[in-house]
Amino acid sequence: MAANANSEPNQARRTAKYLYATLRSHAVMQEFLDRGFRDHTSIFPVINFHLYQTSASRLTLDKTVLELKNDIKKIDSRCNQIDALTSKVQRLSGNNGGGAGNNGGAGRGRGGGRGGNTSPSGDAE
Questions:
Q1: What is this structure's pTM?
Q2: Are 96 and 89 in contact (CB under 8 A)?
Q3: Across 49-65, average pLDDT
Q4: pLDDT at 114
């Protein structure tokens, strides 16, 4: 009754159809509650048809699970690569340039690439 009420052009009749459907549903509500909705004869076929229409085959389900497992492996691999790169960056930034000399090399680090300890005046110690 209410399913086709929206197509009613007359506002008063449309409202009456919704009201009638609402009151009618209250009349059978106790019966629905007593049978737990699912087991009621008017609802049971609708639920079964919904399950039939929306269910996936075992093959489709297995294929989807396999794809998800492969995706998880790829994500784990990427996470491991990110962790390795993060560790490498931390090691390099802790060295601050590295190379020959006093924590320096090639003019990039603290040692200025001069090779060895030097005094502030630039003379070799």
A1: 0.37
A2: no
A3: 91
A4: 44
With a CB cutoff of 8 Å and minimum separation 6, the contacts of 116 are 101, 102, 124
Residue by residue, DSSP assigns 89-111 as HHHHHHHTT-SSSSS--TTTSTT
Q: List CB contacts of 92: < 8 A, sequence separation 6 or more.
A: 98
DSSP 22-83: HHHHHHHHHHHHHTTTTTSTTTHHHHHHHHHHH---HHHHHHHHHHHHHHHHHHHHHHHHHH
Query: How confident is the model over 12-29, as pLDDT tens digits?
Result: 888 888 888 888 888 788
Give 10's contacts (C-beta < 8 A, 6+ positions apart).
none
